[in-house]
Amino acid sequence: MGRKWNNIKEKKAAKDKNTSRIYAKFGREIYVVAKQGEPDPELNQSLKFVLERAKTYNVPKHIIDRAIEKAKGGGEENYDALRYEGFGPNGSMVIVDALTNNVNRTASEVRAAFGKNGGNMGVSGSVAYMFDSTAVIGLEGKSSDEILEILMEADVDARDIIEEEDSVIVYAEPDQFHAMQEAFKDAGITEFSVAELSMLAQSDVELPEDAQAQFEKMIDALEDLEDVQQVYHNVEL
């Protein structure tokens, strides 16, 4: 896949000087998932997944606990999960996932973030077909051969296993996510540098320098929106 997953994550973290923004997004997602099902991660696989992902971003325990307690208390806030698709400079493609309690506001803000930065929103399905839903897990301290052996012994299929600097990144079908985690934990691996269900582009594009700067400005504008949870794209960073 060649996505250089850790590099992407490090750039995002370095850019995100206000970590409270990341924590707020996780707090909202944890609340929504806990409210939709059981507030116990052992009984709610969706919640368990979000908490695993939050762990890789070092989300403080009090943020997690507060969101779960709010869900237990029957919080009155209701959020809709929405997906927007659009295009950036030079035909680059973008997917935006949001959780919102005001659909009109979010649609307007996302449209403006695209439009003010050389992009435009597309209709549903105009971009998503060029992306694959993928489970991504990153580990450190193991070789790709060791990881492959662990997965084979657990009868877990992986799409790809790539060594990236000091990490091994495993890509698999989404329904293999929990099986992968359990296989690694059974092998004594409990810390992950990445644990995501992501949308990965089937092929990446490179932009000329001027278009790259404009594209990154557009992505920043989208990620800055309060209601936006995730932004995926097909541009090589």
How is the secondary structure organized here?
Blueprint: H1 5-15, H2 19-36, H3 45-56, H4 61-72, E1 80-87, E2 93-100, H5 103-115, E3 120-121, E4 131-140, H6 144-153, E5 160-164, E6 167-172, H7 177-186, E7 194-201, H8 209-224, E8 228-233
Antiparallel strand pairs: 1-2, 1-3, 2-8, 4-6, 4-7, 5-6
Helix pairs in contact: 2-3, 2-4, 5-8
Family: Belongs to the TACO1 family. YeeN subfamily.
Protein name: Probable transcriptional regulatory protein GKZ89_10420
GO molecular function, one term: DNA binding
* DSSP helical segment count: 8
SSE pattern, N- to C-terminal: HHHHEEHEEHEEHEHE
Classify the fold: give the CATH topology of the largest domain.
Alpha-Beta Plaits
The proportion of residues in beta strands is 15-25%
* SS class: alpha+beta
Radius of gyration: 18 Å
- Outline type: globular
* Ends apart, CA distance between termini: 14 Å
Number of separate domains: 3
Low-confidence stretches: none
Biggest β-sheet: count, sense, barrel?
4 strands, antiparallel
According to DSSP, the number of beta strands is 8
Q: Helix coverage percent of residues?
A: 40-55%
How are the strands of the biggest sheet laid out side by side? Answer: 3-1-2-8
Q: What's the CATH architecture of the largest domain?
A: 2-Layer Sandwich
